[in-house]
Amino acid sequence: PTIIIIDGLDEWGKPMEQHIFLDQLQGHLSKIKWLRVVVMSRSNSEIQKAMMNKKHVQLFDLTMDYTAHQDIEIFFRQRFAYWDDDNRISKSDIDYLISKADGLFIWANTAMDFITESGMDLASNIQVVLQSKGHESGVDQPHAALYDLYTEILRQYFTNKQSQHQCLLITGAIISAYEPLTIDTLGMMLQLETKVTYPVVKRAIDVLKAVLYLNEGKIYYHLSLAEFLTSEKCPAEFKIQRALQHQNWGRICMKVLSTETRFNICNLETSSIPNHEIRDLKNRIDQNISLPLQYSAQWWAHHIKNGEATESIVQKVRSFTKSCQIIFWMECMSLMGKIHGILLSAKEIKEWALKIRVSIIFFVNSTMQELEQFTNVFAIALHESTPHLYVSGCALVPVESPLRENKIIHLKQAVKVTGGHAMKWGNILNVINSKSNVYSVAYSPDGQQVASGSLDKTVRIWNAQTSIQTGEPLRGHTDRVTSVAWSPDGHYIISGSWDKTAQIWSAQTGLKVGELLKGHIDGISSVAWSPDGQYVVTGSWDKTVRIWNIQTGLQVREPLKGHIGYVTSVAYSPDGQYVVSGSVDKTAQIWNAHTGLQAGEPLKGHSNWVTSVRFSPNSKYVVSGSRDRTIRIWNTQTGLQVGEPLKGHIGHVMSVAYSPDGQHILSGSRDKTVRIWNAQTGLQVGVSFNGHTNWVTSVAYSPDGQLVVSGSRDETVRIWNTQTSLQVGKPLKGHIDYITSVAYSPDHQYVVSGSWDKTVKIWNAQTGLQVGEPFKGHTNWVTSVAYLPDGHHIVSGSWDNTVRIWNVQTSLQIEKPLKGHTDTVTSVACSPDGQYVVSGSRDKTIQIWNAQTGLPAREPLKGHTDWVTSVAYSPDSQYVVSGSYDHTVKIWNSQTGLQVAEPLSGHTNWVTSVAYSPDGQYVVSGSVDKTVRIWNATTGLQVGKPLQGHSSDITSVAYSPNGRYVVSGAWDKTVRIWNVQTGLQAGEPFTGHINWVTSLAYSSDGHYVVSGSADRTIRIWN
């Protein structure tokens, strides 16, 4: 047989990538009898897991059966035979070297490189090595001898603090870089932000050849070196702090991006020629996009995320995201074919933003979210022709997008659209041209890819974010592909075809896995995987359902027979116990997946073909779509229909699917629309998704439920955003920066808002018009606003450390600012009796003020160990509740200033907002941990389970006036209302904001909610 050896697998890729690689490898090798593969690796849990209990795999522990001493002896003697012509090296020296190697070939190789390449004579170098500490390796310290050698080599060359610091910067940069760099590139980049010059880098690399090596001009290192330099065993003068090194790289990358990016960097003459047809594009890239810029463009966000978030770094990122450079960066990524890298970078920066103080980073996260939306919509244009970044992308960005407001207006070279602009991004994210009628679509389990089956007999895989096809079409079927499905682990795709066969494909390689599944005597209409990935079910126009073992490719028992018409759709229950099938005979049938017997009577009620069936995530319900234009839900235990049919489509329902949380149903129809329905009420959610120009044949949810994909006979695959809204009127606009706080007047006729533009504004809640002039006086961002109970005065807090009280009629400030806090005022509230104002601050204290005199009513309330983020009064004005970044909620006696009982603990991250219930019996809190919690204000105990549903940090919470509901706003851009009694979400989320929700409040009659957002708008919801 042919033998392939793969050495050091543990040094390649991430653990999960290693697992996937080995899983794919053994799957294919089981079918290739003439090939053997030897995989060698250090002990690694993912590698062991991938190889355990697998046929065709034998495991050997070489640490038990093999010693390298003999090989190391041969290595040393042969190398010295070449270098030691005059026999300066004694046999005893070589024996001692072999002993010190302790069976580690990497020790022997490193020692030999040092001895022969350090520029000193062999004998002197050997003495340096032999005099190293020579700790014996053991179970607790398997690399002790190697680490001692590394230490000795570094100390030999870097003998003073200056050279040691230079070594630290250079090795740290090499170890922390995300790809190997050339000496020239490393030198050029280091000298931008450090005192390490190119000659210093080159000299250091030359003397470190014993521990570093060059391949095709790039610098590489052994994994053990990185482990040593970051371990506790490394001497302090050489030890690498990865976060600090990533911070250095972040600064360097920011410097490169800000100085080297520019408009049309490769001097492309036209947008009409696709990138792949520009013959000299690679040369243009090499000439105009330097290697430092290529590296920085791809990896800046990764370094920023993993580095220390200093004020300097924050400001650099802020400046970058507010400038045209971020658009020019996208141009570089487009030219290099790294469209997906834009999305990855945006994701990294958003995650970084979550780790630092939220208020500092609003604008950065806003831009990253817009970049994701922009890239999703224009990915194909960016992939095909870079100039369309400007010609199409920048020109068509919606009016309300921060990209338009902050960057694109400065691009004078871009095409300008003078009318017809969309105000905000629509529901549709991507339109993928498949060039053939699409009959089936499916999301991969990780949500990163979409598979489609088409009339042209192919299966195609698409990047769900960039819309770009991944690899070549999967070919093999001899007739149209009617159905596709991903295996639960995402490694495989099964396709069914009118050629009467089903085929399993490797999602990674696009190659066929095993033989065709043959047995049906007519076309296959539908395929599905079992939850454990061991079986697939197929439905056919031969009126049968068949279950197959994917390992053997054989049919399990006899076909499932019972339908008297073609089988149109099949699905497995998530618990693996049942299979459901739909048929032209107008029925759906549930089958026992283990026995093949019918489970109960057929589900009857449709008056035309059943075209599509799916189980709910909890396996308790089945949804069916039909040519009778209705969707029906069935109880799987009783076989009875649940509620009334879902009606609204004006054409045949062709496909249905449950959302991952089971709360919604998705449908596609011959009326060319995609619709979402509330699974509980049967009502349509929001508006229909319009855009397809022919039948919608297939629909599916993304795993996170945020997106849906549809396939159509119009030869397109479309990806849609599921968000909808129940907004009243148009957004209230006028602020020129992020809105941080909103509140209703006591008579709910007006809304007050505070903003980063340093102003406070009042709006007519009915007309949406601004009332009077802005209230000006704060010298920094306004963080919080509230009405006094008389409705004639407003109180505001600010980053200028002050609290101010304003006259609503005159817009003038009452008396002087209320001063006492030593840091930003984060929250203000008024006592219901109108006598006091309370404020919370970043200085970790709470201050109560006399609303009449503006003087402190008592000493500050102290107890929180981090920023106070939110304060609120109880209805009787006797207590104050506060939330803090220290993860706790505290209740204080407003008269004595003393804390009442123990802190309310339960949140696992920063508490961002608190409020009292109208009866004063409860407190509600929201947190960065994505939960809303209700507490008994007397006992301090949590009431019920946390309210969960938001997909990001919660920023604001409030009680309804009747105390039956709680409203919450979050970074996921949604407003949600919760039933306090049941803990369930009441209705659909309110969506429409294009940036995170910063603040919200109920109207006093409970009919409306007002929300403020970082998108600079205020919205009122029914």
Automatic annotation (TrEMBL):
Native organism taxonomy: Eukaryota, Fungi, Dikarya, Basidiomycota, Agaricomycotina
Keyword Repeat in annotation: yes
A GO CC annotation given for this chain: transferase complex
Recorded superkingdom: Eukaryota
Signal peptide interval: none
Organism: Collybiopsis luxurians FD-317 M1
Name of the protein this chain belongs to: Anaphase-promoting complex subunit 4 WD40 domain-containing protein
Keyword set, alphabetical order: Repeat, WD repeat
TM spans (from-to): none
CDD domains linked: WD40 (cd00200)
Repeat positions for WD: 431-472, 474-515, 517-558, 560-601, 603-644, 646-687, 689-730, 732-773, 775-816, 818-859, 861-902, 904-945, 947-988, 990-1022
Gene3D superfamilies: YVTN repeat-like/Quinoprotein amine dehydrogenase
PANTHER family according to UniProt: WD REPEAT DOMAIN 5B (PTHR22847:SF637), WD40 REPEAT PROTEIN (PTHR22847)
Entry-linked PROSITE patterns: WD_REPEATS_1 (PS00678), WD_REPEATS_2 (PS50082), WD_REPEATS_REGION (PS50294)
